[in-house]
Design brief:
heterodimer, A: about 110 residues, mainly beta, six-stranded mixed sheet, five-stranded antiparallel sheet, B: about 120 residues, seven-stranded mixed sheet, four-stranded antiparallel sheet, about 50% strand, globular
Chain lengths: ~110, ~120
C-alpha cells in the first residue's frame, strides 16, 4: 500500500531558528495537504498544493510540492513558540483513501 | 459554522464489549471521514462517505468495525467485540469537497480505552 514518510520524526530548535520537514510518498500524489496538530489537539488544515513544482507561502511558512509530485516540504523561517506541534503531510491515493505522513514533531525552545 | 462534533470525548470499556461513536459534521459538508490515531503516529484512514454512500474502506478495517451515515448527515462508527489493540483516538473529519479542494475539518476525537 501507499506509504508517506516524513523526516525528521522530531526536531528541537531554538526560537528564531529555521525548521524544515520533508515528506516523501511511495506513489505519485494528485495533491498534497499539510496539517498541524498541537499537543492534545486535532489536525488543522494549513494548505493544499496541486501543481507539480508548486510553491506557496503563508507568512513565515513556505510549502513546496516536488516536480514528480511524490515529495513535499514545509519550511518555517524564524520559528516562534506558537509553531510548536506536529506537522503532517497528507494526500489521496487513486482510490481516494487519504494517507497521512508519519509527522514531524517540532519543539521550540524559548 | 459550529465545527465537527464528536461524542463521547472519552470512552472506557472492557474487552469484548461493543462501542459506538457519533460524529456530527459541519452542516452541508458532503464528505465525512473516520480516522484512527495512536500516540506518536499520524491519523490512519478507516473509511469515508460521500453523502450517505460509503465509498472507501481501509483494508485495515476488520469486520468488527462498521460505519454508517444513514441520512448523509451525522455518522456512527461501531466497534464490536473490542480488543485492547483498538485503544486509540478516533477522529472524524468533514469536507465540503468543492472544486477538488478536499480540505478536511477535524473534530476533537473520541479517545477509546479498552481494558
Amino acid at each position: 500500500g501507499q506509504q508517506v514518510m516524513q523526516i525528521p520524526q522530531y526536531q528541537h530548535v531554538q526560537e528564531g531558528e529555521d525548521f524544515t520537514t520533508y515528506c516523501n510518498s511511495s506513489t505519485t500524489l494528485s495533491n498534497i495537504q499539510w496539517y498541524k496538530q498541537r499537543p492534545g489537539g486535532h489536525p488543522v488544515f494549513l494548505i493544499q498544493l496541486v501543481k507539480s513544482g508548486e510553491v506557496k507561502k503563508q507568512k513565515r511558512l513556505t510549502f513546496q510540492f516536488g516536480e514528480a509530485k511524490k515529495n513535499s516540504s514545509l519550511h518555517i523561517t524564524a520559528t516562534q513558540t506558537t509553531d510548536v506541534g506536529t506537522y503532517f503531510c497528507a494526500g489521496p491515493d487513486t482510490g481516494n483513501q487519504f494517507y497521512f505522513g508519519t509527522g514531524t514533531s517540532l519543539t521550540v525552545i524559548p | 459554522d459550529t465545527g465537527v462534533s464528536q461524542d463521547p470525548r472519552h470512552k472506557i470499556t472492557k474487552r469484548g464489549q461493543n462501542v459506538t461513536f457519533r460524529c456530527d459534521p459541519i452542516s452541508e459538508h458532503n464528505r465525512l471521514y473516520w480516522y484512527r490515531q495512536t500516540l506518536g503516529q499520524g491519523p490512519e484512514f478507516l473509511t469515508y462517505f460521500q453523502n450517505e454512500a460509503q465509498l472507501e474502506k481501509s483494508r485495515l478495517l476488520s469486520d468488527r468495525f462498521s460505519a454508517e451515515r444513514p441520512k448523509g448527515s451525522f455518522s456512527t462508527l461501531e466497534i464490536q467485540r473490542t480488543e485492547q489493540g483498538d485503544s486509540a483516538m478516533y477522529l472524524c473529519a468533514s469536507s465540503p469537497f468543492r472544486d477538488a479542494r478536499n480540505i478536511q475539518y477535524f473534530g476533537a476525537g473520541t479517545r477509546l480505552s479498552v481494558l
